[in-house]
Write a structure and sequence with these properties.
The complex is a heterodimer.
Chain A (H helix, E strand, L loop, with lengths): L1 E7 L2 E7 L6 H8 L18 E4 L2 E4 L5 H4 L3 E3 L1 H4 L7 H8 L9 H14 L5 H7 L10 H11 L6
Helix pairs in contact in A: 4-7
Chain B lengths: L1 E2 L10 H11 L6 H7 L16 H4 E3 L5 E5 L8 H13 L6 E5 L16 H28 L6 E4 L2 E4 L5 E3 H5 L32 H4 L11 E2 L3 E5 L9 E5 L10 E5 L2 E6 L2 H10 L1 E4 L11 H9 L5 E10 L2 H6 L4 E8 L11 E7 L2 E6 L4 H12 L6 E5 L11 H15 L3 E4 L2 H7 L6 E9 L5 E11 L11 H6 L24 E9 L14 H18 L4 H6 L5 H14 L13 E9 L6 E11 L4 E12 L6 H21 L27 E6 L18 H13 L10 H10 L3
Parallel strand pairs in B: 1-8, 3-4, 9-19, 17-18, 21-22, 25-26
Antiparallel strand pairs in B: 2-3, 5-6, 6-7, 9-12, 10-13, 11-12, 14-22, 15-20, 16-17, 16-19, 20-21, 23-24, 24-25
Helix pairs in contact in B: 4-5, 11-12, 15-19
The chains are: A alpha+beta, B alpha+beta.
Chain lengths: 156, 747
């Protein structure tokens, strides 16, 4: 059993794992009780498990605990809380941009990364930024509105 | 968080119920519900679960708070706000005073599965009636207390109020800690819509803030003390048997247990990643029965099975009016066309997950099932326990849109927990979910029709090939128990798939026939808008084909045969929003088109009209949906924003099903088991949406959870035809099919 010192939501968290290839996702959910990132496919195809690593979107089912060492990881919980949400989270609440909400983690994480590199995206930019994140409930239109709102713009 | 394990004994004792209370509130860790946690009343031992008792649904606590016990569950659909709105309105309670408990079989009455768009229409209406009964009883108590006629009294803010003196008596004072002990009065008067203060408001859902901050406790996030992780190793082929297991293949992994019950095979470990590796590493050999037809042969299989005495479940005439055969024989031009809807997966974003704790004194199951009460019976049967010993606790899952793998995964967990005597969490993989969730059944429809000399619909015949649902089947056979060799009810479940099979427009001669089939190519279940989605696709496409053959405007062709004012209203609303210009299809542009479709769901529920604008990229065979307009009348609207969200979801999910989705399988097993082989609609495909909700405050509330789905596919097919003259009759509308249709006129 090795210990991997990972920076998660501003703290160094030791993660014990007997396999250096264990995806970060399972450590977040089972060892650190950070369940915002969800298991959706384990194949890097759906985006429900996204986290930020040094400000870039990473799929935590594809990032091993050993690779996570040295990166600054931010999860959905690290962005904000119910009482004090991140502006993107607040915009999702205002637009009521979740049905089952299982994909919401990936949507919020990708939106935060997008607005970090492009604070005033147009609608097509937002669609492209979320192109690899799946939603089954059909909440896409509200998610787009929420991201536009978070950027201080209205949906065209 | 850790949920407490609460074995459910025949009579729940007070301590258990208090522990149950601590487990229950985690469902509501946000917004409205979080505020309510402080007021959660202590649960009373021996609470009734009867649907004809007010106490089955409502408990008022001495502190003024109220608990609603709801057998229906919020599947991401907004019931969690809408049902409290209905109860608060009738009972004269502030919304903030209400805590909603959903689906817990030890606490909520069995109101049937949360299916068929029945959450509000039946579940909510039942609770509303309980609330009205409770209000009338409270007014009666206050009238007696004050010695005043009850007509002078009203309710507000958790109090009965004397209209003359403005004197107030709190509900809690009137009840004095006692239950209502009252039968639900079907005739208790309902509040007048003009007086509504809470119903009809677009109040925000209480779960969203927690869902977007990682605080919402999903089924997948539940842990209980001593819980082990398990993965089920599903057969290499449908119906396969284990011929060998090489246990040494997982020897390098520590802490792995193998559980085998006949052909049911699972691996168990304390560590989730270990068990995932073990499931992958374990070498198992299987027989290969090769018993399936293959997805590309389903249509011909259906027709053959309909004519094969061994596979046919009979032919039935569902509707007959006039003499369609004679009318068609006498028509100058008879059109005929067949339409096919493929098998589809529920394709939930989160593969199914469940926890079971099977103990000698009771069984507790944590589940995201849309039918917790039904699941309770399933688990009791497969574990051979009395029903009273089994409790199912609901937790939100990923959206299921019907019976997906949520029930199966709990049956898996129950079998494993029973075998090892410890609580077990089973998480399906992506491959499990797309491969093994019960599938929406295939549907084949052949239409014949004719238009008379005045260009009106003269005669219509529908012939369908449909798997036949087994009468009185308590549940579909569960995968795990099937492989374990456990005796369970056998048969098919499909939902009501033969409805909406003819046009709702006046026509003198009509026949609808069905060839029932004994089997379906893969285990079927209900999937959103069961059957109606395919039937409406075929019917509304063929109406369009007939209108085009008569060189009529397709909307005018429909409207002249439609007399239902609510139907007319939704159609006209869409026409107005689309600035519909009357002309025959196809349009002249060759690439831009518009389409229309209308459905009166089940011919007695919600009214929906949809218009679509598309562009066809001929070389790529691509359909670009540019705009979708929908008018929707589901009677009284409880929460307009939650309703709108359901309609949006119906539209976009069905656009996905129509453009992209077909479960593929060879003769052994499903082969479309990831998001590349089973693609969904993505953000770049999302069109502009415009939705008009037509409120009917004086009419009963109907469902909004699935009706709009049914109008989507034909609106799209009709728009494609209008754009380029190519008729799409097979779902999904892949680029290959579009190109084929462009070349030969149809595909």
């Amino acid at each position: 059993m090795a210990v991997y010192q990972c920076s998660i939501n501003g703290r160094i968290r030791p993660i014990e794992a007997d396999d250096p290839d264990q995806p970060l996702l399972y450590a977040l959910r089972n060892d650190l009780s950070l369940t915002g990132a969800k298991f959706g496919c384990g194949l890097g195809q759906c985006g429900t498990c996204c986290v930020l690593a040094d400000g870039e979107v990473v799929r935590s089912c594809q990032l091993s605990v050993s690779q996570a060492v040295g990166k600054t990881i931010t999860t959905l919980e690290g962005l904000g809380t119910i009482e004090n949400p991140h502006p993107v989270q607040a915009a999702f609440v205002t637009e009521q941009a979740a049905q089952c909400g299982y994909c919401a983690n990936g949507m919020v994480i990708n939106a935060v990364a997008l607005l970090g590199r492009n604070p005033k995206p147009n609608l097509d930019d937002v669609k492209q930024a979320l192109a690899n994140n799946l939603c089954r409930c059909g909440t896409h239109d509200r998610i787009l509105r929420a991201v536009m709102r978070a950027s201080g713009q209205v949906m065209p | 968080m850790t949920d407490q394990t609460v074995p459910c004994t025949p009579a729940l004792n007070r301590r258990d119920l208090l522990r149950a209370g601590s487990a229950l509130v985690v469902t509501f860790a946000s917004g409205l519900a979080q505020a309510q946690q402080r007021n959660t009343p202590q649960l009373k031992a021996g609470k009734t679960l009867k649907t004809d008792e007010v106490d089955g649904f409502i408990a008022l606590a001495p502190d003024g708070s109220a608990t609603l016990y709801c057998g229906k569950v919020d599947l991401g659909t907004g019931l969690r706000i809408a049902i409290p709105q209905m109860a608060a309105e009738e009972l004269g309670l502030p919304l903030e005073a209400i805590t909603l408990i959903e689906g817990d079989t030890a606490l909520t009455p069995d109101q049937g599965p949360t299916a068929g768009s029945s959450g509000i229409m039946r579940g909510g209406v039942q609770i509303r009636q309980a609330a009205a009964t409770a209000r009338e009883a409270l007014i009666g108590m206050a009238a007696q207390h004050w010695g005043k006629p009850r007509n002078d009294l009203t309710v507000a803010d958790g109090h009965v109020v004397d209209g003359d003196t403005q004197e107030r008596l709190a509900f809690s004072v009137l009840l004095n800690g006692k239950p209502f002990a009252l039968k639900l009065d079907e005739k208790a008067p309902l509040k007048k819509p003009a007086d509504y203060e809470i119903v009809g408001k677009p109040l925000p859902r209480p779960d969203i803030a927690a869902k977007v901050t990682g605080q919402h406790p999903y089924m997948h996030d539940v842990t209980i003390d001593g819980m082990l992780h398990a993965r089920v190793i599903r057969p290499q082929a449908v119906g396969a048997s284990i011929t060998g297991i090489d246990e040494s293949s997982v020897k390098t992994l520590s802490d792995v247990k193998i559980v085998r019950i006949n052909n049911f095979l699972a691996v168990v470990s304390r560590n989730e990643w270990t068990v995932i590796r073990a499931a992958k590493a374990l070498k198992v050999s299987w027989s290969n029965p090769a018993s399936l037809v293959g997805h590309d042969k389903v249509k011909s299989w259906m027709v053959a099975a309909g004519n094969d005495a061994a596979q046919s479940a009979g032919k039935e005439v569902l509707t007959q009016k006039g003499d369609s055969a004679k009318a068609l024989a006498e028509s100058k031009q008879v059109l005929s066309a067949s339409y096919y809807w493929p098998l589809q997966s529920h394709a939930s974003m989160g593969p199914s997950c469940g926890i079971a704790d099977v103990r000698p004194d009771g069984v507790t199951i944590w589940s995201a099932s849309q039918a917790t009460h039904r699941l309770r019976g399933i688990c009791a049967r497969i574990l051979e326990r009395p029903l009273e010993q089994v409790r199912v606790i609901y937790r939100d899952g990923a959206g299921c849109y019907g019976t997906n793998g949520h029930d199966d995964v709990c049956a898996d967990a129950a079998l494993i927990s029973k075998a090892i005597g410890q609580p077990v969490r089973v998480q399906w993989s992506r491959e499990d979910e797309l491969g093994w969730d019960p599938k929406g059944p295939p549907q084949l429809l052949a239409m014949r029709g004719a238009v008379n000399g005045e260009g009106r619909l003269a005669a219509w015949e529908t012939e369908m090939w449909l798997p036949k649902a087994t009468a009185s089947l308590p549940n579909i056979p569960m995968l795990g128990p099937q492989d374990a060799g456990i005796n369970q009810p056998q048969g098919l479940s499909t939902g009501l798939i033969s409805q909406n099979a003819h046009p709702p427009y006046a026509h003198p001669h009509l026949a609808v026939r069905v060839n029932w089939l004994k089997d379906s190519p893969l285990r079927p279940s209900n999937i959103r808008a069961p059957g109606k989605i395919a039937n409406s696709f075929a019917v509304e496409s063929f109406v369009d084909e007939l209108a085009a053959s008569a060189q009529r405007d397709s909307l005018e062709f429909r409207l002249e045969g439609l007399s239902d004012p609510r139907g007319l209203a939704v159609c006209k609303k869409v026409a107005e929003l689309m600035r519909w210009q009357a002309r025959p299809s196809p349009a002249k542009s060759g690439s831009l088109g518009r389409g229309f479709s209308y459905v009166h769901y089940k011919f007695n529920e919600t009214y929906v009209a949809i218009g679509m604008e598309v562009e066809i990229k001929r070389r790529a065979g691509a359909i670009v949906v540019k705009r979708i307009v929908c008018a929707h009348d589901c009677g009284l609207i409880i929460n307009p924003d939650a309703t709108r969200q359901q309609v949006e979801g119906n539209i976009l999910q069905t656009l996905s099903r129509t453009l992209f989705e077909e479960t593929q399988f060879d003769t052994s097993k499903v082969t479309s088991v990831d998001w590349q082989s089973y693609p969904l609609l993505t953000f770049p495909d999302v069109p502009e949406l415009e939705i008009a909700l037509l409120d009917q405050p004086h009419l009963p509330p109907l469902g909004a959870g699935e009706a709009a789905c049914a109008a989507v596919p034909a609106a799209l097919a009709n728009a494609v035809y209008d754009a380029c003259g190519a008729r799409l009759r097979n779902v999904p509308f892949t680029p290959d099919r579009v190109k084929l249709a462009l070349a030969r006129g149809h595909a």
